[in-house]
Amino acid sequence: AINAHLLSGRAWYRSAGVHQYIYHLLRHLGEADSKLRYTVLLGEGVLPSDVTLPLLRSHWPTSRAAARVLWEQLVQPWALHRIGAHLVHGPAFIGPLVTPCPVVVTIHDLSFIRFPTLFRPANRLYLTVLTHLSARRARRLIAVSAHAAAEATQLLGVPPERIDVVYHGVDPAFRLLPADEVAAFRQRRGLPERFVLCVGTLEPRKNQTRLVEAFARIHDSQVKLVLVGGKGWLYDELFARVETLGLSKEIIFPGYVMNDELPLWYNASTVLAYPSLYEGFGMPVLEAQACGTPVLTSNVSSLPEAAGDAALLVDPYDVEALAAGLNRLLTDEPLRHELRERGLTHARRFTWPHTARETVRVYRRALAEGLVLSNVEGGET
Question: Are 124 and 147 in contact (CB under 8 A)?
Fold first, then answer.
């Protein structure tokens, strides 16, 4: 059973990240192993049109966090018993604490533990407590990077031998697009010929405020900064800083952008700047690389892992270093060309079919461990 209650049915900032992970897993799990049978546990979300997996829909309003918590812990165990599930996958940190079958849980990042002040108290408490309990009760954990796996061991106390690293994939839609199509998009959106793009929910962890301060040091009046992303939380400081620096005409806020339009934004941009303070993986880095866009990103957490040797890495806490990196990429055309070619090669290594196959390996490992435990308890060896 796959808990897909975080599969979003509308366009907003929660349609990013975990939503995309669930969406692409559901699209490819069936072809990854035809011998396993799946049931998708769904709330108000919408299944991908090409997914034909059996569905068990709940009428609980689980787009609301409180309702989802209650459903996960009180209703989900009953649903799992009803369908006779042998295994359940919680694809976003949390699994049912009382369950008739083993649990696999995916850990994306542990920013709510590393940076508690950047989260609302209620969200932080819910995630911290239930992620700890879920991780310790899960038969296996999936970490989306080696960094996330190390964090799960250090912060959650999960032994490394119970953790499998399974990287995200890159949707084939993220690719080089025809120049005339990109030019038409740029004109339609009123975008300048050269701009720095940043993609991510507007929240402190994404570090857009320091990026704005670094952009203020750019000495090219023809370059704009475009901050694509829906409003998350604690974003007032970002908008206040833009006003204080007098950059309201130089910085564009398009809001949340649907995933099918994102490749155009990457293709149209001169550089992607992704100075996040902490990521479990960092999908915009790979998406930009797959579109041939040179990348400036952070030298912390999982971002060097996601970027490989195909990005310029800087200290995200150092505004001067951010500014120097932006200036270098904007003025050094040979470097942009080199990172473009490296990025295209690097991004091809990450596909969602491969992610699905590796996820199925984890399911089978968890099921096999259950048979071993059963045999040991029954006196067999």
Answer: no
Q: What is the pLDDT of residues 101-113, one digit of tens each?
A: 999 999 999 999 9
Q: Crossing angle for the helix pair 236-244 and 208-215, nearest 10 degrees?
A: 10
Tokens read off for 115: 């940076």
Full-model pTM: 0.90
pLDDT digits (tens, 9 = 90+) for 307-332: 999 999 999 999 999 999 999 999 99
Measured from the Cβ of residue 246, the count of other Cβ atoms closer than 10 Å reads 9
* Alpha carbons 186 and 317: distance in angstroms, whole number: 32
Q: Is 157 exposed, middle or buried (0-12, 13-18, 19+ CB in 10 A)?
A: exposed
C-beta separation of 42 from 67 below 8 A = no
Written as six digits, the tokens of 330 are: 């904007």
**Burial tier of 249 (Cβ tally within 10 Å: 0-12, 13-18, 19+):** exposed
Contacts of residue 341, defined as CB under 8 A and 6 or more positions apart, other chains included, come to none
Distance CA 206, CA 303 (A): 12
Reduced to 3 states (helix: H, G, I; strand: E, B; else coil), residue 160 is helix
Collapse the DSSP code of 181 into the 3-class scheme (helix H, G, I; strand E, B; otherwise coil) and give the result. Answer: helix
d(CA 23, CA 39): 14
Number of H helices, E strands in the chain: 15, 13
